[in-house]
Amino acid sequence: MMKTEISQERQREVKEELGISLPMNSGFLYRTMKRDVYSDFCDIYVFNYDCSIDDIILQENETCDAMWASSEKILKLIETKKFIPLDNMKYVYDLIGIKCE
Predict the structure, then answer these.
(1) DSSP conformation class of 89
(2) Could you tell me what percent of the chain has a pLDDT over 70?
C-alpha cells in the first residue's frame, strides 16, 4: 500500500469505530508489532485531535467506551484492573511515560 492509502484506511477505521473525522496527517505511526496470538501485525497510531467526548459515537460490537484520561488516570485504571488488558501493554506504559520491567 502507498502511504496515502494507509492514511485513508486509518481515517476510515477511526470514523467507523469512533464516529469522528480526523484531519489528514493528524497522527503518526507509533509502533508496528507482531502479534503471535493472531498471526498478524498491529499498527499503533497516536493522534492529536481536539474534540468533545460527546462527539464520539461508539460502534456497537466494536467499541465499548471512551474517555479522556491523563497518564495518571490510565495508570490508576491499570492498577485497579479497570483498564482492558492488551497484548501490547508495554506500549501503553511507554506512551504514558512509565518504565516497565
Answers:
(1) H
(2) 90
Nearest to 14 by CA among 67, 54, 71, 62: 62
User: Which long-range contacts link 14-18 to residues 24+ away (Cβ below 8 Å)?
Assistant: 14/47, 16/59, 16/62, 17/58, 17/59, 17/62, 17/63, 18/56, 18/57, 18/58, 18/59, 18/63, 18/66
In degrees and rounded to multiples of 5, residue 47 shows phi and psi of -120, 145
* Same-domain status, 52 and 79: no
- Domains held by the chain: number: 2
pTM exceeds 0.70, yes or no: no
